[in-house]
Amino acid sequence: MKKIAFIGLGNMGSPLCQRLLLKYNVDIFDINKSNLKRLETLGGRIVKDLQTIANNDFIFLCLPTSDIVESLIIGNQGLAKHLKKGTSIIDMTTGEPKITRKIENILSKKGINFVDAPVSGGPKGALNGTIAIMAGCKEDHYEKIKPLLNVISENVFHTGDVGSGHSLKAGNNLLNLICRIATFEVVSLLVKDGIDPNTAVEVIQKSSGRNYATEITLPDNILSGKMFQGFTTGLMNKDATIALNNGELLKTDLPLGKLSKKILQETIEEFGLEADMSNIALTFEDKNQIRLRPID
Fold first, then answer.
1. Which domains does the chain carry?
2. Residues 186-195: pLDDT tens digits?
3. Is residue 63 within 8 Å of residue 42, measured between CB atoms?
4. Is residue 201 predicted with pLDDT exceeding 80?
5. What positions carry a catalytic annotation?
6. How far apart are alpha carbons 261 and 265 in whole angstroms?
7. pLDDT tens digit string along 250-269?
8. What is the pLDDT of residue 234?
9. What is the pLDDT, as a whole number, of residue 1?
10. What distances in angstroms separate CA 81 from CA 88, 110, 162, 211, one per listed residue?
């Protein structure tokens, strides 16, 4: 029987772990006691120390940053000191490829497998089992962990060697930001020219300019007046920064990414890092003296 643990039960970790609990017994670990209690009611077994966690064959992580992952695994009191040969660590954090490859290089010498498997699709996609999982690891190890990942989601992709999953996730979110900024810019122009924003979005969605912002962001979150997507400006800033830093490391020019992050910063300066990404609409409304949201 597979012995499984999950560390990090926040907004994303919790629904991901819930999917595993549908089929497996799972040891759970988190510094937030309320997160633990919630998952315990769903069948999770609370574990109080890393040494006990290390007894598992597969250890899932979903933590805020790669720095935290690095400290947890290879820090002075890290998990690596207790792990047995053949253990697999599956890191679902939205992390940094450079740090991920550093961790994998250290663990591989100990016979421990490290996989980066970030996700895209939000808590709803995680709960529904439709979230995209991007797994970076050797092909033979991917075949070993794929059945486990498929318990979480039907949409699992092997992206290449370790680090490729985190690279692809950050790149995807940078592209999302670029498309979002570009779409708000053009729709603002059209509204300024007297076109109803609903009409503009409806037509673009059926035309060559369609993208996630015209399909989901604008109709569901802005034009509806809901103004809530469930993804903060701080998280987008983090993901864009990871992608841009990776670009610098690889000597790849990313002018649109840099400009989009600069515009995102304007929203952050006005509304803060905990603001929902829908607040970008307010930045464009204010800049262009238009109204994208429904008029009260």
1. 4-162 (3.40.50.720), 167-288 (1.10.1040.10)
2. 999 999 999 9
3. no
4. yes
5. 169
6. 6
7. 999 999 999 999 999 999 99
8. 96
9. 72
10. 14, 10, 21, 46
Q: What is the pTM of this model?
A: 0.93
Q: Please, where are the H alpha helices in the chain?
A: 13-21, 33-40, 50-53, 66-74, 97-108, 122-128, 139-152, 164-192, 197-205, 212, 233-249, 255-271, 280-288
Nearest to 184, CA basis, from 227, 229, 222: 222
Interior angle at CA 172, CA 18 and CA 183, nearest 5: 115
The residue behind tokens 């992580």 is 61
Q: If you search the block for the tokens 């204010």, which residue do you land on?
A: 286
CA nearest neighbour of 162 among 145, 138, 132, 133? 138
Q: Is 134 helix (H, G, I), strand (E, B) or coil?
A: strand
Strands 88-91 and 26-29: unpaired
Rounded alpha-carbon distances, angstroms, from residue 108 to 15, 84, 90, 113: 29, 12, 14, 6
CA distance 8 to 287: 39
Residue 209 has pLDDT above 80, yes or no: yes
Three-state secondary structure of 218-256: HHHHHCCCCCCCCCEHHHHHHHHHHHHHHHHHCCCCCHH
Token pair 């040891």: residue: 27
How far apart (Å, rounded) are the C-alpha atoms in residues 263 and 205?
24
Q: Return the pLDDT at 46.
A: 97
